[in-house]
Amino acid sequence: MLNDVDRTQSGGPSVAIFRSERYAAMLLLGAAVLGLILANSAIGPALLTLKTDHIELPWLGLDISLGHFVSDGLLAIFFFIVAVELKRELAIGELNSLSKAALPAIAAFGGVLVPAGIYLLITAGSGWENGWPVPTATDIAFALGLLAIFGKGIPTRVRVFLMALAVLDDLVAILIIAFFFTSDVQLSSLGYAAVTLLLFSGFSRLLRPRSSYILSRKPQWPLMLVMWVLAVLTWYFVFQSGVHATIAGVLLGLVMSRRPGGRAVHAIEPYSNGLILPLFAFSAALVAIPAVSVSQLSPAFWGILVALPVGKLLGITLAGWLSGLVASKFGGVSLKIGDLLVVASLGGVGFTVSLLMNELAFASDHEVVDEGTIAVLLGSAIAMVFSAAFVSWRAAQYRAGKIAAHPHDTAEPESAPLF
Fold first, then answer.
1. Which InterPro entries does the annotation name (predicted)?
2. Maximum Cα interatomic distance, the chain, rounded to a whole number of Å
């Protein structure tokens, strides 16, 4: 993955701002705030009606609302990017060996299990226990963006660890969507999707390395056009199969040849950061604030609100600390507890994937969907404020030289500062 400087220096000034993690996070937050404000303004009812308007193509058997077109269709492009980056990390990145992947993997699982457990404790007996996946997600764009904004001076190893953890967290989210939000699977449609997927994979291996997508001595745009068609067909067949359509993006990213996949991500990333994710955040945040007292809010609201910032902080910190103790005894790599807290505080920003999980988990009750959306936004906001303060303090310590810099963090001597 390109670092923040590389992103802003590639692609020209017209797209530079959308390659920057810090600006992408700001844009995502701004879109969500705008959606919430407009939904509760005079034009709110018209926007909410527009969101539920349907696109109908009877000859294709396609009937999808505009809101679901964004969350099921456009968001598949974001999951394609996640899958390509996951594949790269597994092949040549920070997850390409068991020793490298162990610590972020254990921390990621802690950051899933503890929030889910807290949510289930709060909602026990309420009938809304099925919302446990909502607080388990980490928003990779927001987390890296906040670190870029407030973490000047924090070592690269902390960013790499956060990135690895967030990618694994997204993998868990993908598996949750695939296994818990899939019903009435149509095997014939999945079979057609498998065929188009295999063709897409094969054509991706015909792309020449380091060549232009559009202009070269032997132009590749006909091949790219065929691949776009195959990608759309794969999405359509997955959508018709009953499996959540964003899984199509994941599958396409995993089967695409790695180097062409990296170039594809580089090309579409500005559009994902600058258009798709903000549009999803705007659409998901189009929620009329319920006219109920605090005591009338559902247990699902309180479960998400507490489990997202608190559960993530506790789960990632405890699991990472315990696995770090084991790793240090065997000469492995670990993080100082202060750096681990940086990652854990940023992990509490669920946002994009949590909003998607919320829509899927409470699809049968629109009022609870609205409450869940507000809980995700408030929980993520709490995590943002805490992480911004903690990351800034930690970065100031590094810049002041109060923390010794090491190529890798290992078990600290007794005289070394805990933070």
1. Na/H_antiporter_dom_sf, NhaA
2. 72
* 209 part of a folded domain: no
**Distance (Å, rounded) from C-alpha 92 to C-alpha 84?**
12
DSSP string for 374-411: HHHHHHHHHHHHHHHHHHHHHHHHHHTT-S---SS--P
What is the C-alpha separation between 280 and 316, in angstroms, rounded?
27
Answer yes or no: are the C-beta atoms of 323 and 106 closer than 8 Å.
yes
Task: Write out the chain's pLDDT in tens, 419 residues.
Answer: 444 434 444 455 556 677 777 788 888 888 988 988 998 899 989 998 998 888 888 777 788 888 888 888 898 998 899 889 888 888 887 777 777 778 888 999 999 999 999 999 999 999 999 999 999 988 887 888 888 889 888 888 888 888 888 878 878 888 888 888 876 778 899 999 999 999 999 999 988 765 444 444 556 778 889 999 999 999 999 988 888 888 899 899 999 998 888 889 988 989 988 899 899 889 888 888 877 778 788 999 999 999 999 999 999 999 988 887 766 665 555 678 889 999 999 999 988 889 989 988 998 888 899 899 999 999 999 999 999 999 999 999 988 887 765 544 433 333 333 33
Spatial separation of the C-alpha atoms in residues 171 and 167, rounded to whole Å: 6
Please provide residue 331's backbone torsions phi and psi, each rounded to the nearest 5 degrees: 75, 15
Terminal alpha carbon distance of the chain: 28
DSSP letter at 209 equals T
Kindly state whether residue 220 falls inside one of the protein's structural domains: no
In a domain? residue 416: no
Let me know: does 356 contact 170? Beta carbons within 8 Å.
no
| CATH number of the CATH domain containing 62 | 1.20.1530.10
Prediction pTM value: 0.78
3-class DSSP state of 418? coil
Q: Helix 351-361 to helix 366-399 angle, to the nearest 10 degrees?
A: 160
Strand, coil or helix: 23: helix
Our measurement of the distance from residue 413's CA atom to the centroid of its chain's CA atoms, rounded to an integer in Å, reads 36
Tokens of 176: 């949750």
Note down the domain range covering 117. 4-182+244-399
Count of domains observed in the chain: 1
CB 250 within 8 A of CB 238: no
Cα dihedral: 158, 163, 165, 170 (round 10): 160
Task: Write the CA distances from 90 to 73, 95, 164, 236, integer angstroms.
Answer: 26, 5, 10, 28
